Amino acid sequence: MSGYWARRTGSALLVLGLVLVLNFVLFRMMPGDPVASIIDPNFSPEAKARLSEVYGLDRPLPVQFLRYVRSTLTFDFGISFLTGRPVVEELKSRLPNTVMLLGTSLVLSSLIGTWLGMKAALKRGSLLEKCVLWSGALSFSFPSFFVQLVLLMAFAAALPLFPLRGTLSVPPPAGGLPLLLDYLWHMALPVFSLVLLGFGGWALYVRNLMVKILGEDFILLARARGLPERNIILGHAFRTLLPPLLTIFLLSLPGIVSGAVITETVFSLHGVGRFLLEAVTGHDYPAAGASFFLLALLTVSCNLLSDLLYGLTDPRVRMERGGGR
Amino acid sequence: MKGLLKRWSFWCLLVLAALALFGTRLFDALPEAEVAAPFSKPLWLDRSLPPTMDLELSGGHPAAELDWVFGAPSRFSLRVETALPAPSRFVEWTIPGGKTFRLTPLNRGVELDGRDIAFKRSLGLPPFGDASSALFPERGTYRIGLSGEGEWEGSVKIRLEGGRWGLLGTDQRGRDIAALFVAGIRVSLLVGIFATLLATFLGTSLGLAAGYRGGWTDAVIMRAVDLLLSIPLLPILMALAALWGKGLWQLILILSVFSWMGTARTVRALTLTLRDAQYIEDLRGLGAPAGYILRRHLLPETLPVLLATMTLGVPGAILSEAGLSFLGLSDPRVISWGRMLHEAQSFGAFTAGAWWMLLPPGLGIALLCLVFLDLGKYLEERVDPRLRGGNVL
Amino acid sequence: MRKSLFALFLSAVLLALCSAPRAEASFDPEAFAGPKIQDLYLVIIRDPDAQLLALDRGKVDILGDLHRPVDVDALSKNPAVDLSLASGFHGFFLGFNVRTFPWNSLELRRSAWQALPRERMVRDLFAGYAEPLATFLPPVSPYFEPDVTAYPHDPEAARKRLAGAGWTWGSDGVLVSPDGRKIPPQKLLCPTASTAPTTAEIAVRMAEALTAIGIPVQAEPMDFSTMISRLDERDFQMYVLAWQMTRDPDSLYAFYSSKMDIRGGYNMPGISDPALDEVLDRLRFAPDETAARAAASEAQKLLSDLVPVVPVYSRYTISAVSKQWKGTLVTDRVTADNTWSLLAMEPASGPMRPLYLVQADEPRALNPFTSSSAYDWQVLGLIYDSLIAVDPYTLETIPWLAESWTIGTEAGPAGPRTVLTFRLREGVEWHDGKPLTAADAAFTYETLKKNAVPRYFDNVDNIDTVETPDDRTLKVTMKNVSFWHLHRVGGISILPRHVIEKVNDWRSWLPASEKHPSDPGLTGIVGTGPFVFREYRPGEYVRLSGNERFWLGRKR
């Protein structure tokens, strides 16, 4: 078995290495550098040359690549071109908001979705099941930014119930509880929109999975043995549900980062997603490279974790996959 | 097949496809053309706004009176066309109550508009807002005329724009939203279908190769799958769009390059199981070349699954394109629904209260996705009967 | 009847007197005193809709720069808000590659100027909120020369001019030069519509207008830095570019002198005219104001004849202030959120309360050495002072940290050179209480020069030596003679020596996150200005407090 782990881990590291190279190449290929965009009659040719020197853009490419690898592996990430501050500082100030946003919405939508999905699987053909099926389809089909824009227009612009932007009021209230409440009030609409868009998919997936599980032989056996329904559901069925559910939870983590980009743009939140968008459009190599690398790290880790989890819990899989994926 | 005809999504798709192909003929102008004032409301929305009117004064008809029963027009523009200028004569505008404004002398090539700050200053108005609200302060009788007496060869053309247009109004550049909406169907369908087709083609070929050949081919392809799956989709799309994305076909290419992995895995799994089937072994024993086996036997086995996955993949492509366009990363010359939403948000639909700009594109995207989801479900059911029953879509 | 007419007349006169900008009356900075506001919040709101809503709901009081016409129109109908319009030094130009055919033809360039429908473009793309520009310096420039050659919009006249110069039209409508060369299709480089939508649209319209008189032009949108590289490599035919000029006209040298037709230089058209070069040299190295004015005037006249580029429009800056505040200073050259306003503003009624100003984007590093974005300087400009300031009505130089100065010329080893002697004010204190001396200014200039800090490169490059004969006198000896040295040197923000000398690496210095060694309410950002930096909360706001010890207007 250790061979399997070693193979998977080795594979993950290889992928990370390739991502590093891809990162560097991609952003160097992007047309133009930040110095070239400075058009200011007060910036003489000499001043521009000096700026290029300061940014280290006049060094040859291999040197730049080595610097890049070294700084990435030490999580140094360099200094952002756009803000002049270290990228780590920028990420530090933005990470809490993004984690809060994505974490809360993921937890809430998975909990609500799982509960609804289970209920729907148990009551086949009911109105609840129909609603769950429709909500799954709708939450997938409606583009997230559209739902968010509509919510914003309705509940922040037309009816001033929620703030239109940001994570805190200006000035923020002093003290622990009022500050927390202010923060929650600002996060309410973004989180609500993400949960609204997310729970449908979960509910649908859980319902389908639950339907399959409930049709399995071991459930029939348990029923035949006369075990109480509640035990069957919460005990056997749910326990079987858990591993794939956890796997999906882990696998969906990297995906919702894309959701962060859009949500943070619509609600003007100070987060990592919007930082990434600005870095990419602003040719800010250090910032964009750092964000990409971290995202890739997150994705690879989640994939690895979910693979390991899957391998742990389902012995059939391990046997089948003896030849490597 | 009969089951297909019974599904609402099939008919919906037909209507949308028809609109995509022939819809632009319903409109006089091109979708990009400016047809009316920006942020004009739909015709059915606000009855107090005046209709668009054209007036003409000439030497023979030097004056006109208007019985105005509406609110102020959204735009006022005036043009003087003459070969013989008469600078001592003016166009005069009288509002109810008697106050008269001198708009312009009758010079050659005069073009005035309520938005020109120079014009507003000449009337003594502050430079903000459109002059038409000052020129039409209330309901009543208005008079426009040429001062002075005598013959004059030429004409003064005045245009009053109402601020209403069409089925869905206009956007921030005065383009007909209904026309843009119809044009957007084409883009969404193109992107959705072609990106998925390309991705399926890529995924199938690579999956077949990996599954059938095994060994190094398999290892390399699966590494590539892992690599591409580790790259978060939206960020890489953002970077590539910023790099190359100017153009619809580049976008389709980029989208397909990042969506073939799932298909490849499924096809490879299927190929692996089928590869060791008895009849395939027999064929190999008889000396059939790999290409023949793949084409004639393995591929047809995968087709039903492929069709279903493909149909379910279309909404994904449409949503990815919409997301990119919304973030502003798509080609602005390509009219897509995501782009319409981006422009609505950036150019002030909120401030102008123009909800008619926001709802149609979003609902359109959702509708198209639902249509393909439903069709995909139908195809999936045909392939895998276990999923039938209790399914209402 | 007569009484009411008289009353009307009187009130009209009074109104006229009150509302006209007091260009003739002199502006007295000494009439101002330290800020009345105690707390100033620069609220970071990037989304224009959110900015407007915040202003509407009273969450912010000043919105300094409205971009979208729809916002201006919406606010013009809002009775609780005052709008003001300021002309600026922004200039948008259509450029040609004057080195090659067909743009080496003067008459063709002049006809192109006449073919452009400026008013219509401004009207359609900015809803009228921009100024059609027909001169090489904007009208608000103190050196503006009105008596220049004009080319009003008239496509017919353009055609006549071309015909008169010997051009003909082919059967496909394309112009053919007098010596029989047909104009090949021209590409007009412009930024993409995603980065600059209005610019891309203007380019398309200009291409259409020029094609209509026979010049086949097509807009070619491209990534901005790629475009600049193409311009640098002189690989272009036509382009559009916007500049932010300053009140000093010596930027004309950077744009139109043939010496600036080098890599990284801004003479992209490649105009090379000996008479123009001579005038621009005189402008750049003008010894005094008279010479500067004469040279500027001549330069503009020559440029309007030579037409190396065609000016198109200049942006207005429109700002909005809530009527709940009074004391705002508004002129047609500065926006409502200028320093003078912030010094004098107070609530129209009720007790003093914090003032909320909109900042349209995050300040970046808040490092006076490296910060180049306007968002940083919106903050830093309130904290640091320079030796001179600018009159908001006339744009002339007025004393600031320096209460007086002399400009002399002395003979030097390499020729005559300018000597600037500044006399600093008495009693100016840094925000941490230490007194300002000439040594601070000297140290600032020397540090910038020693480290070749890019942003100040051109300001300090020409400084030869800096001396401080006493605590209040600063003597700066330049390397050559130029009237503009005063502005270049006098406009640098003075930094505190006792803080800067402890900074190891000016590149990575983040003063906003550093604690001040002795004062817990301060950070590494210490200045002498009217506001004191207190806090920066990324994504939310920057908090400043009024400087109670501000030197302006203090009675002793």
How would you briefly describe this protein structure?
The complex is a heterotrimer of chains A (325), B (393) and C (556). Chain B is an alpha+beta fold. Chain B contains 14 helices and eight strands.
Topology overview:
The complex is a heterotrimer of chains A (about 325), B (about 400) and C (about 550).
Chain A: H1 2-29, H2 45-55, H3 61-73, H4 87-122, H5 127-141, H6 144-158, H7 176-214, H8 217-224, H9 229-266, H10 272-281, H11 285-313, H12 315-320
Helix pairs in contact in A: 1-11, 4-5, 4-7, 4-9, 5-7, 6-7, 6-9, 7-9, 9-10, 9-11, 10-11
Chain B: H1 2-6, H2 8-22, E1 53-58, E2 63-68, E3 75-81, E4 86-94, E5 100-106, E6 111-113, H3 117-122, H4 131-135, E7 140-146, E8 155-161, H5 177-213, H6 215-230, H7 233-244, H8 248-257, H9 261-275, H10 278-285, H11 290-326, H12 337-346, H13 349-352, H14 355-383
Antiparallel strand pairs in B: 1-8, 2-7, 3-6, 3-8, 4-5, 4-7
Helix pairs in contact in B: 2-5, 2-14, 5-6, 5-8, 5-9, 5-11, 5-14, 7-8, 9-11, 11-12, 11-14, 12-14
Chain C: H1 2-19, E1 39-44, H2 48-56, E2 62-63, H3 69-76, E3 81-87, E4 90-96, H4 106-115, H5 118-126, E5 130-132, H6 155-164, E6 168-169, E7 175-176, E8 186-191, H7 197-212, E9 217-222, H8 224-232, E10 238-244, H9 251-256, H10 274-284, H11 289-306, E11 309-322, E12 325-326, H12 339-344, E13 346-347, E14 355-359, H13 374-383, E15 388-390, E16 397-399, E17 402-412, E18 415-424, H14 438-450, H15 457-460, E19 463-470, E20 473-478, H16 485-490, H17 497-500, E21 531-537, E22 541-546
Helix pairs in contact in C: 4-6, 10-11
Structure description:
Chain A: It is found in: Cell membrane. The complex is a heterotrimer of chains A (325), B (393) and C (556). Chain A has 325 residues and is mainly alpha-helical. Chain B folds into two domains: 109 residues, Jelly Rolls (Sandwich); 210 residues, MetI-like fold (Orthogonal Bundle), CATH 1.10.3720.10. In chain B, helix 2 packs across helix 5, helix 2 packs across helix 14 and helix 11 runs antiparallel to helix 14. Chain C has 556 residues and is an alpha+beta fold. Helices cover 30% and strands 22% of the residues of chain C. Chains in contact: A-B, A-C, B-C. The interface between A and B is large, with 57 and 48 residues.
